[in-house]
Predict the structure.
Amino acid sequence: MTTTVPKIIVITGASRGLGRALVAAFVRDGHHVHGCARNDRQIGALQKEYGPPHSFTTLDVTQDQAVEHWAADVLRSAGPPDLLINNAAIINRNASLWELPAEEFDRVIDINIKGVANTIRHFVPAMIARGSGVILNLSSGWGRSTAAEVAPYCATKYAIEGLSKALAQELPDTMASIPVSPGIIDTDMLQSSFGSGASSYIKPEAWAKIAAPYFLSLGPQHSGASLTVPGQ
């Protein structure tokens, strides 16, 4: 357990993959975690495993009013987050851009971009009022380069890079907005693109042991910089 003062950490997409691994790592180090995800069963499992002062809420980040209510509950019970991690995201199935139906394209855009904006909209004003806090928006190597058959996902992660850098220019100097590429990790999302080849990459739990302390080390001096988790 850490001997430092616990940090208040908010994570979207907390029930699986990188989000779930980060929850475990932050809790293990003594921090207070408040997360959301769409899967009610997985959220229930998190609630059962990690009781108060942690909290987990079933939520679709594309629903602005629901995000507003969740943020109000967290801010009322825990105060503004020290670290806000926008992790919730999906990837399109492998296909050429013109082969994807509008509904699938829209869903990727809605979660990966609008969901981030919704979370920022309802948490960041309280962080600004306090005058401190770091917003980490998970980007991707495909937000700095491209690949065939994942055009919608690439578009959203390029958008996250721009959104994060513009937000950094709007925040007070005591805060930070940072686009962070997690690297290549063996998650369900990677498996959807790489198939069995995903298994050769680092597992989320091992990655989180590196990523969690790295995320906590970031501050105003890093605002606006495109960063990557070390070793990835």
The radius of gyration is 17 Å. Residues 102-130 form the longest helix (29 residues).
